[in-house]
Amino acid sequence: MNDFLFRKEHSRRMPGDEINGKVAKENTLFSFQWIIILIFLFTIAFSSQLKAQTVTLDLKNASIIRATEEIRKQTKYDFTYNDLILKKAKPVTLKLVKEPLNSALKKLFSSQDIDYEIKDRIIIITEKKAGMAKGANNALDGPVNGSVTNESGKPMEGVTVRVKGTKFSTQTDKSGHFIIPAQYASSLLEINHLGYYHLEIPAQRARVVSLKMSASELKDIVVNTGYEQIDSRQLTSAVSSVKVDDILTPGVNTIDKLLEGRIPGLVFMQNSGQVGAAPKLRIRGTSTILGNREPLWVLDGIVLQDPVNVNPQSINDLDFVNLLGNAIAGLNPEDIDQIDVLKDASATALYGAKAGNGVIVITTKKGKPGKPTISYSANTTFNRRPRYSDRNMYMMNSEERMDVSQEMVERRMQYNNITQFSGYEDALQQYYKGTINYDEFKRQKDYYASVNTDWLGLITHDSYSQNHTLTLSGGSNRIKFYSSLGYLDEQGTIRGEYNKRYSSVVNVTADYDQFLAQVSFAGNYSSRNYSPADLGIMNYAYNTSRTLPAYNPDGSYFYYPVTPTVGQLFNYNILKDREYSADHTDLMASNLKALLRLKITPKFNLEGTFAYAISNNDRQLYYTKDSYYISKLRADYSLRNDKAPVGGEWTKNETRNNNYTGRLQANYATTFGAENRHSLTISGGTEIKSNEYNGFDITRRGYFPEMGGYFDIVPTTYSGYYNQWMSTKAALGSFNRQLTNELAWYGTTGYSYREKYIFNFHIRGEQSNLFGIRSNNKLLPIYAFSGRWNMKDDVARNTSWVSDLALKASWGWQGNMLPGQTPYMIIRQNASTDPYYNSTSANISNYPNPDLRWERTSSSNIALDFALFGNKVTGSLGYFYKRTQDAFLNKIVSEINGVQTYVINSGTIENKGVEVALSVTAINNVGMNKTKRGFVWRFDPQLGQVLNKIINQAINNRNNVLIDNIDYSNYLSGNIQLAGKPINTFYSYKFKSLSPVDGSPIFYGLENENAAEYQKRYLNMDRQDVYLEIMSESGRREPFIQGGVSNYFGYRNFGLSFNLTYSLGNKIRLMKIASGYASTSAYPQQNLRKEFVDRWRRPGDEAYTNIPGLQVNPNTINAWWQNSPASSLQLGGSAYDMYDNSDVRLVSGDYLKLQSASFRYNFSESLMRKLKLSSAYVALTGTNLFTLSNKMLKGQDPTQSGSTPNINLSVRPTYSASLNVSF
């Protein structure tokens, strides 16, 4: 057991300190850091080989072509030239020994009519000006041979070359070469390539053409799907692509948060501002009810796995705060080049059954040809804590809370289970008992009325975070590399909470004529520290009375009495109690990928991919013997009931994941027909995957962290400990294992006619050990059809303001199988003996479900892509429709089966919506001559609308309820499926008024004066029908319209950008004021929201306010629906709980947020030359700067839901200073 012990040095912990002394983890982290450093040093050593090249030649009457081939072999430099130039060259005789490359070329061409130029690692050969006319005249009788390069001199493949005024067109090959027939030798050529300026040039001057990048052209040229790289002009699927450099925001440290407001059709929901909290993402709605609704993450073509296999029910819960991290939590956004969001069946088909919720493909940065470049980026971020002065705080101050206390005294307020008062109430009790005189009472009263303890300042703080990234990249045309080291120290605004991340990426690519090889490594280590959830740290900060001090006048802690159990007192101080607990998680993950592509023929190649990933998530949580948590377990300290008689408690949750992917794929591409008008691509392959989770969970008591992680023995006389605790699963510990093996085949075919009419077909079949018996006997194929019509030349040939126009459409099937289902019954024997029957027992772990079918989704998509006014306005307008059949639902079965619920295929879900994406370059005074730029203004509005509903027949046609194991809480939380209603539709009690007698809330359908009538009628109704009568539909919890508008303004070296995001269509509850973490019968230590300043106080106030009065005596308010026999209907809790869940506490969740704003200065060319830098900039950035929302929220952040049982920290504003340099 020593491997699982907490090793900690005996020392005093400060508030929020992490769990220390994990020797094994420290060694592992040390090793991990050394691995990263060694890899980084390797790339530096590799880059040192890219120095000046030397050449050794021994040529006798040899051709220039042979000489260039020999130089290319020795130096790895490429040549680009017109064949006619070298064919006319004279033979050479030359002997050189270790001659510098530049000098060797001068000697080689000294007696020739040849000029040359070296750009990066490409040697461009041209004719001398004096000889060009002659060469041109000689060529008039034959075809025109030309080549196209970019501004760096690199050959460009796939450039379209048209003969103006004719139908003839061709494309450049891999070397950038093209041939124009002799009959067009005197014609004018049109040379076009997406992302570059259009060029018209006489054919005889097109021997070597250099295209310049256009600032106003479409940004995204190549779309990465993970299996394919597709030119955006050939794209037939629904894919949104963004360059990470365009959306990178200092202070935003994970990839998922960067996508807020950037992708049409992607709904972003962030329910907590805690450091490391993951947002919830939905792509084109919800296609499953019981399955995981999050998208699939893919890194460089390989599917990523979450480090912890969290139950889909928790992940789908909109109130669940995910602090465990997701599949991309360890990736550094600085290492990412591009993000492609695959939305429809055509785009996601090749990923199979797990891609029903969409796929997000991440492409890491790769090296580029050129000298090695070292880049360093750093940013420091200030995170602003919440303050009582903020407009999003609406809590009472000391004086307002004292007013409540005085009213409670005047109305003879009664408390349940309180034996000792604190604060003002304690001073009043002492005065009544005569232990203090009036003067002392008055002094204490004045003190408590003005103390105004800043609990928010004591529990949260303004924090500073830092992020550093160092990269090294470069290479040649043959071998390119990219490597990086990253460090993030993200301090939370809750004291003691942090997220530290170490990351590294290494990508090496070797690209030769006959093969391409890639090796990629991505590794990260993160360390997170949080306050334990049971501590309720933010609940305390918001809801503790400000009349209570945190410290005594002498600086010592101020304690007040609380009662963890009846008859027991505990002196409590949150600051001290925080020192007695910690929740710490260490996560290490690494991904290794190797790819080899062999060129068998010019048209056919084979590629193999192997990837292996491993992660280890180790969470340790403890409470010491002095913590309030442990005091509650001790109950009355009797031998019979004490469940924690010695020491504290320690919990360990460890999850290890390892997975591998093997893929073999064949690719064939050809063109045929007259003028190569027809293009055909065929790819197919097979894939094998294995994914394994191994977990271990245990909770031990008798723990002493202050004694080095020592566990003491609990005497056997404590029968409660051994009988009630040690026989539980948590105390005994448990191992769990989940293994998923998958074998799949896939294929894709693409056909294009003159690059105008494009058709694609994708198909995938897979078999997995997750599927039932019947599913194992057949491979359900997932397939999709898609097409594209580049219609510019057909419908807008003579429309000058239309630069490009394309219509695309797709349709396909997707499938899904719910994890955890099996055709076999699994019975798990309990390890301990049943204390009542003195025998072993067993539970049914998995119920056999051999007939469960696939959850199938059909998806249709149509979109219009356009570019207008010389590509100054580009965008896409699309519509989609998805229909899921045989959706998984839970159904109650008889307990005689050993389980209470059973999964069936019974649901049908419909999703539909509209997506709009625009990119507008309103002003662009940037010329091609690289002079100082003028004013630039670009803005990119995005909009996505998603409407969904359940449309199948209900189990009970009277109330349209699709599941039969529900109670009122399902309606209140939105965890109810109703035919014809959107998913996450929730309900609220119908508030009527306040009672004129005591100010308690009254609801329609539940009035006391009609109790007898209601009880009789409701008992004869179906329970679900009763809920629909006493509640009203409130709306949906998820927004159905989200988007953003990003703006960029530039002038000279200055740039200003900001991103506005908006969300529409959802409803939220106001924070609780009468139940849960709040109360209308507040104990002396509880604070109240300012709404209670306007509370009901006396008869007649009900005409002016809807805020309930104080609950004078909790025992006197006895709702009729809580008494038998009406209690069997389970209509709700107390009237005050129902008030917080009524329609009067309901508001719109719509908001407009300034998500980010950044001011940037790019260093001038002259300054960079002085500093010997290739590029540099500094920037100031702010995030979450302000939010416009419903005024009834009274400052409550619209991302904070009143439905959650706990108060979550709101998303906090941040302010960052950044520096980025390259040399």
TrEMBL record:
Pfam families documented for this protein: CarbopepD_reg_2, Plug
Annotated transmembrane regions: 29-47
Major localization listed first in the record, in broad terms: membrane
Residues in TonB-dependent receptor plug domain copies: 233-359
Keyword Electron transport appears in the UniProt entry: no
Compartment annotation: Cell outer membrane
Protein topology in the membrane: Multi-pass membrane protein
Coiled-coil blocks: none
UniProtKB keywords: Cell outer membrane, Membrane, Transmembrane, Transmembrane beta strand, Transmembrane helix, Transport
Cited InterPro entries: Beta-barrel_TonB_sf (IPR036942), CarboxyPept-like_regulatory (IPR008969), Plug_dom (IPR012910), Plug_dom_sf (IPR037066), TonB-dep_OMP_SusC/RagA (IPR023996), TonB-dep_OMP_SusC/RagA_CS (IPR023997), TonB-dep_rcpt-like (IPR039426)
GO CC terms: cell outer membrane
NCBIfam families (UniProt xref): OMP_RagA_SusC (TIGR04056), SusC_RagA_signa (TIGR04057)
Family, per entry: Belongs to the TonB-dependent receptor family.
Name the record gives this protein: SusC/RagA family TonB-linked outer membrane protein
Lineage: Bacteria, Pseudomonadati, Bacteroidota, Sphingobacteriia, Sphingobacteriales
